[in-house]
Amino acid sequence: MSYKTKNSAMLPRPSFSLFILDLPRLRGKALENAARNCLVGLYPDNLGDRPLVIKRNNQKKRSYLVFVLNPALPYKPLPVSTLFAMKYFCRGNASVLFMESNWMEFILIENGALVKSEVKTRDAAISEETIIRFFGKENNQQPRPEGQGIKPLSANKIDVFCHKNDVHLFSDNKHNSDIIIHILENELGKFPLYTYSIFDHLSIAKRIQRFFLIFFSLLVMGGISYNIYNQHQMNKKEILRTKLLEEEEKLHSEAEQKDRMQVLTLQERYRQLVEHKTAGPYETMDTISRCLDDKARISSITIKDGFFQMETQASDSLEILRVFEDTVKVQNPMLQQIHPLKNGERFTISGTVLSEKESIDTSLSTKEQIVILEALIVKEENKNHGKLRPSDFGVNIRGLLTKWRCSINAYQYLTVENDREIEFSIKATSGNFFSFLREASINNNGWIFTLVQIRNLAPQNAVDGLFRVRAETVVEDGTDTIEPYKESPVTGISRHFFIPPPPQPQVIKASPLPIPPPPQVKPEPAPWLAYIGVTSDYTGSQFIYVKNTRNGAMLRLENIAEGENRYIITPMGTIEAQIEGKLYEITRR
Length: 589
What we know:
29% of the residues lie in helices and 28% in strands. The protein is built from twelve helices and 25 strands. The chain has helices at residues 28-39, 81-88, 128-135, 184-187, 204-222, 226-274, 281-291, 317-326, 366-381, 390-403, 430-442, 490-494, and strands at 17-22, 52-56, 63-68, 78-79, 94-99, 103-110, 113-121, 157-162, 178-183, 197-198, 297-304, 307-314, 330-341, 344-353, 407-416, 419-428, 449-456, 463-470, 524-525, 529-536, 542-548, 554-558, 566-569, 575-579, 582-586. Helix 5 packs antiparallel against helix 6 (226-274) and helix 6 (226-274) packs parallel to helix 9. The longest helix is centred in the middle third of the chain and has 49 residues, at 226-274.
């Protein structure tokens, strides 16, 4: 049975790179590693995980042909023009031009070994002069021995392999050098496909040869003895196992190929999502804080889309600038308005903080990289989902400010560049305000801060803050039908401007009864409540902490006149506390 090509179907020569290397006599992975080391200075691009195919350069000692392939190529026998020319002139010298529809390859062969291979884009007007200029007069070839049905040629012979429709390009042989035309449709059928293919170990012919070799070996050896027959049965199982391993390796290689393509696609998609991402206010403040020493103090700062400008007091402004310049995340730091002080300098510094982009560890498997990239893409795409109406969004911001005990001075809705924003003016301790910013940055649900201004109220432990958050609106799908317009009565409108007082009923006043004094409640001794200490916040309110020694709970009591969890100090110096509706006496120890 013959397995030969019926048409060219050659792997395009521009789709791979070919190198002729001198390598030690190694095999398998060791030979591939040696080839990769040699290609480090030769291959113009990043070699990465590109597959290599390595073949002996005929009988030339220590000479190998190294094919650098595209990972997207199918894993099957692929015919190559270079190998075909070497097969055709397996023992002689030749100057060969191989022509396809949009490319051509110039090949020099010496004693059956490849000396040079160069690929060029096909020129529709290619002439004989172009060929002669490439090979030159100095490439004098020795006469070739007869073989494969090819007659020996004299010196300066150039063999051209082309299709029938390209023969007319060489019909007029005007030069002394002979050009011999070979029709590809006729010549390709002279050799089996796998003899001039890469991945030739996958060819059907080789597999059939191996199968028949094993089959006849088993027949011959099976008749010798029963024990030998059993041994060959074991060999047969081993061969089948090897075949299964090869199939599994092939499937694994195809799966790896598919995963690598998916990783490249996901990486490009993630890059597009985070390409224009700006640093949030908390990330900006965190980066600035890492660049300042503990003695530096910020008087005021303005943050907008990662850009910051702040007035600072520190011992050395130039040292601060140097730290900002050495920080990769800070771009274009600038120093302005430096005023020397007794113990340092007061200055203004500005710059832009780049957003942190999560990187993927390329040493991980492709499966792990796919899982990480998909999670990052989902995180970025869902960041602005679930947008609220402006009113609901304002309630959320106000609730988060209340949680972190940020006192609201005022807030309003604004329209800035056709976007609706909410502006809040607050007062809080610096720790509480930055805790608010941190939670808003982690669980933002569409919180986009367009402006943050902070003014330090030192020596108080407090800051004045002003920030704006973009209030994304939601277009809700309404299914209600629109009713015709109906006029409202005038009274329905005027009630918003004046409401007449209700008529006062005539009441006969009775003499007021004396209000009995409230019963005196004597506080219960509470030795199980241990006094811990007293504290106060930035507003001046005082609090004490007591511990319930029965269950270990800590209680925070406020010095107010009414309500639960309050306390007063009696003239005797004892503490009376209202806890869960009961009055207790707490003794300081």
